[in-house]
């Protein structure tokens, strides 16, 4: 209950302070396809008297969003290195973003808990003149995005870049942090930076209008180009025969060599028998002879039936009845002598 009573007056004071302060409004004019940078300075939100510097110990953070939405539009980004440094709104508008957009910025004083609001009205219009034909993007690894967003570093970069190319107009298109392109956060080591992608486009100076001079249609003499005047006839029969016959001869030689190795270099049976021991030969001959005998016996099926399979065979006497004897008159058990 005590905690509730403590926070209720605090919320009332904050709401009263927000209601009394009138949000400042500033109108800006970004251009489609051109980089837009707006600095959120501490002096603008603290409302200090003139000629009074911002105390170095002031901690201010910002929160920006599109009016009626919880976040910024997709083409606009916000960054601030720390509460001691200013914040930046930057980006490059697309043709779909053309029109009026209102950005609400709230500043929080982390020391006094004061809040100040500012409304930025962005009138996004088309850039003047045609688009420049050439575009290039550079990765600057030695800087963070906050170090390039101010106008002075960007101007120095364009000046240094203009000295590398032919004379022409250079315009800054977009500035993007390397972290937004999938880059890794650098280690907290002195000299390590996040990196910045800077995109520029360049125009080509129009050449002076020169009237073409008609000529006689004959090229001037050029010492580096001397075309032949006559082309001699050439017979390609020899080249064709060499191209076809040489591979055929090589294939024929390889075929003959393979046939000689496989057919003419086989070891004879006599040489094989002489190199084999007598015991092994006897064993082999025995196995071979037995195999042949079994094959002959299997082929000859004309053998007498076993006696035990004949009708009325007497095991004791070995007698057997004639095949025409009436088996009904023969006793089942013969007399024992």
Can you give a write-up of this model?
- It is a single chain.
- The chain is an alpha+beta fold and about 325 residues long.
- About 30% of the residues lie in helices and about 20% in strands.
- The protein is built from seven helices and ten strands.
Helix content: 25-40%
Class inferred from helices and paired strands? alpha+beta
**Counted beta strands:** 10
Mean pLDDT across every amino acid position: 77
Distance between the termini: 133 Å
Spans of at least 5 consecutive residues whose pLDDT stays below 50 are 1-21
How are the strands of the biggest sheet laid out side by side? 1-7-6-3
Largest sheet: 4 strands, mixed
Radius of gyration: 54 Å
Order of helices and strands: HEEHEEEEEEHHEEHHH
Mass-distribution shape = elongated
User: What is the helix tally?
Assistant: 7
Oligomer: single chain
Give the strand content: 15-25%
Overview in brief:
The protein has 337 residues and is α+β, with helices and mostly antiparallel strands. The chain has helices spanning 2-20, 42-46, 145-148, 151-162, 237-264, 269-274, 278-299; strands spanning 24-28, 35-40, 60-66, 76-80, 87-92, 99-109, 115-124, 134-140, 170-177, 196-202. 28% of the residues lie in helices and 21% in strands.
